[in-house]
Amino acid sequence: MSPAALRAGLTLMLLSTAGSARAESTLLPGFQIGGALTDLPTAPKHLDFRLGAGLDWVHSAGPVLALRVDTSHRVDATFALLAGYWGEGLRAGQGLPLGITAGGWLGTDVRGDLSAGARGVLAWSLWYGRAVVEADVNMYRRLVPDGHRGSGDWAWTVGLSLRVVPFVPIVL
């Protein structure tokens, strides 16, 4: 087989599979609203109203990457980058409607003190990946200079939110 025929065959193969390969992933831009019990187990505990936005990259086989940005009524903010797996019910509406993700977490509080830790999320589908109830647990440590309140202590946040994707999913 000549090199030109081989190149032509490879090009034809790539062009014929490009549509199916691209249709295997989807971007889901959306927002979430909910509440969280923060600063566990220390006192005082706070019940926060949370509002956020996020972007999920979902592959048809189940892997998911999620980006979340949240803020609360106390003007603190968090940023999380998560990876995990969504069941068939979240992706196609058939089967188990659960998903799980975990990853890193960065945050800042009203005083401007930074925090870092981990976040785990359990997702339950109400309607595919377009309306999802998310229960999350965050474990974090404040990264403030010695002498500040809470320096180096681990704290927990437990939250529940509704994530909605009102936009048309972006098929890649």
How would you describe this protein?
This protein has helices at residues 3-22, 88-92; strands at 25-40, 46-59, 63-72, 77-86, 98-108, 114-127, 131-142, 154-164, 170-171. It has 172 residues and is mostly beta strands. It has one domain (24-171): Beta Barrel (Porin), CATH 2.40.160. The chain has an 8-stranded antiparallel barrel with strand order 1-2-3-4-5-6-7-8. The protein starts with a helix and ends with a strand. Residues 13-22 have low confidence and may be disordered.
Short key terms for the protein model shown above:
9 strands; Porin; 172 residues; elongated; eight-stranded antiparallel β-barrel; 15% helix; mainly beta; single chain
